[in-house]
Amino acid sequence: MPRWGMVIDLDKCFACQSCTAACRMENNTPPAGPDQTGRDRAILWNEVLAFVHGEYPKVEVLLVPRPCQQCDKPPCTYVCPVKATYKNEDGIVVVDYQRCIGCRMCAVACPYQVRYFNWYAPEWPAGMREHLNPDPEVAPRPKGVIEKCTFCIQRLRHAKEKAAAEGRPFNAADYQPACVQTCTGHARYFGDLDDPNSLVYQLSRSPRAFRLLEEMGTEPKVYYLKQG
Amino acid sequence: MENVHRETELERAVLNPLRHTTVQFWLVIGVLSAVVLVGAITLVRQWVLGLGVTGLSRPIYWGIYITNFVFFIGISHAGTLISAILRVTQAEWRRPITRIAEAITFFALILGAIQILIDLGRLDRVLNVIFFGRFQSPLLWDVTCISLYLLSSTLYLYLPMIPDLARLRDRMKPELPLSAVGTLKRWNVETFQHTWRYHFYRILALGWHGSAEQVRRLERGIGIMAILIIPIAVSVHTVVSWIFGMNMQPMWHSTILGPYFVVGAIFSGIATLFLFMTLIRKAWHLEPWIGPKQYDYLGILLLVMSAFWGYFTLAEYLTTGYGTLVHEQEVLQAKLSGEYAPWFYAMVFLNFVVPFAILIRRRGRTPVGTVIASAAIAVGMWIERFTIIAPTLTRPSLGYERAIYAPTFTEIAITAASLALFALLFLLFFKIFPAISVWEVEEGEHIAAVKRKAAELLAAPQM
Q: In this structure, what CATH number is given to the domain that contains residue A170?
């Protein structure tokens, strides 16, 4: 069973936000509009975070693209009262939108704030609504539930189905999330962290590799390569 | 029930508000109902539109609904402490105030549970907690402990009321002989008004007639409940703190949180008891029974809890302050010198400085003094809960940005409505049930009389 993980090279990333846009199109997250975005309510499964250090004129900005960290020890799943969020058999943390009661305890427990709440029923402008991803697995979520990045889990299913249809064994290279596929600078790598021959395995062991809030022991499966 | 026909002074005082209602009372009920109505309308709007109508956002996912939840569960500890602990330790002065304390527990618990329902994004799926609930989540601990507490405090409110209900049944007996009621051909409104109360009390009194066996069983039941309810109450506030403490968030993930919440709960519970017992005492004219002794002794207890609270607060903040953990420091600085500093210092002033200044002297432990101190504590403890929740959530560990939380009208209206509903239920309850446990006070008077007599006999020269 592959242990799906991601490596993001911060040296290659130039914060173009195409990962954010690709994620939005793939996963049908609703546009929030300037008012709600200003109130920190935009739903962005992938976000490019700006860490600002120091004061003018000695300012340093570190831009970090942040999908769900897909922790091996996810604090969010420990606190869910109804098992609406859980690590599935592929090791990916997902949300059952039909079961979630909207208590937001997972969102409070997550140290990375990757969990987004539907404050209102999602809405799309008419033109955008026609172009929603038709996959039922990413059908628009109702109001009052939590949603988050799933490493585009619907693509994993598609890849497995495709391999089965073509009568060949499923290969880890068949599957990659939308953000990885679209990344302009090829800064994102995706694959099996347990396969010593995979690129992500080797990169995750690079001396440049680090993880966010590593000291918390959540064991994220998203690695970053330090900016040089 | 030896003197069925002649009412004692205590009975008259206690039963009078049940029989007669003043205009002022209806006025107060009207105002409270209006506040509840406004809150109910905003709540319906919130259910229709979504939680977006609140001031919550990412990452401040919990706001004043959860603050209210902790606050109401906190004041529910009034009943346990006064009633159960004082009953177990046989403090005689508790007798006139146990009923009021137990009623606070009962209604505060209901209001607390309602806060969680208000806060849910999907109220329609709340039963998932029962269908799919799993004990790994601290939220399930809360559901379990609060349900258990509500159940046991309902029992604990009801059991000691049975003899009083029987007395009400006997006092409210319709003037028409019952046999006549039975033979009336037509059922009319007048007959109904005449008899509903009687039947209401008759059913609730469970056929109590005060036999030795009944008294023995009741005392046994109350004794068991009084002991059982203490650990349940402690567990309730501990698990309320653990919905925060079990998250690895700065200044939440701390071992002191459970005991700190329990102390704060008892503290705010006694303060609420002071407020409501003074209200009922004044409105129902119960001054002869709820007197200086209750204010003095309970005032000392309040002072002790204030000292405990101050000690726990010092322990918590000093320990954090002596560390250098980055995320903890962020939250601590927000409280000591950041945007939450006014709240933090108001909390210390209201919970520690004001109670000490007033209650340290015997002259301060009067109805006026204790009510001022208690009002300060009630507000201060609400602020305490708020400063536990908001600074931590607005300063997430990842630390790329800070959230700002400003509650909206919806949240404020619903908070006001919750407080109004609490007072409303409390007042209406004591329009139907006696505010003082008559039989327990009488029992206390008997015990005191016997003790006096014994002292007299002992002091008398030996034959």
A: 3.30.70.20
The verdict on a CB contact (< 8 Å) between B398 and A49 is: yes
Closest to A83 (Cβ–Cβ): which among B59, B134, B397? B134
Higher pLDDT, B280 or B7: B280
- Give the ipTM of the model, two decimals please: 0.91
User: Residue A9 pairs with which residues in a beta bridge?
Assistant: A225
Q: For A211, what's the count of Cα atoms within 13 Å in the CB-facing half-sphere?
A: 23
Residue A150, domain extent: 4-225
The residue type of B254 is S
Query: Residue B379: exposed, middle, or buried by beta-carbon count in 10 A (0-12, 13-18, 19+)?
Result: middle
Distance CA B36, CA B45 (A): 14
Look at residues A181, A183, A224 and name the one whose alpha carbon lies nearest to residue A200. A224
Chains A and B form CB pairs within 8 A to the count of 134
User: What tokens were used for A120?
Assistant: 């209102």
CA of A107 vs chain B CAs: smallest distance (Å): 7
Partners of residue B56 in chain A, C-beta under 8 Å: 119
Note the pLDDT tens digit of each residue in A117-144.
Answer: 999 999 998 888 888 999 999 999 999 9
Q: Among residues 357-416 of chain B, which lie with CB inside 8 Å of chain A?
A: 393, 396-401, 403
Picking from B448, B423, B460, B392, the residue whose alpha carbon sits closest to that of residue B252 is B392
Of A40, A101, A116, the CB nearest to B129: A101
Q: Name the token pair of A109.
A: 């427990």
Residues 6+ positions from B111 with CB-CB distance below 8 Å: B68, B72, B418, B421, B422
CATH fold group of domain B9-443: Formate dehydrogenase/DMSO reductase fold (1.20.1630)
Q: Which residues of B touch A39 (CB under 8 A)?
A: 57
Q: With an 8 Å Cβ cutoff, are A78 and B398 in contact?
A: no
B59: cis peptide before it, omega within 30°?
yes
C-alpha–C-alpha distance, residues B454 and B463, integer Å: 16
Q: Assess A15–B contact: CB distance below 8 Å, yes or no.
A: no
Please write the tens of the pLDDT for every residue from B290-332: 888 889 988 999 999 999 999 999 999 999 999 888 889 989 9
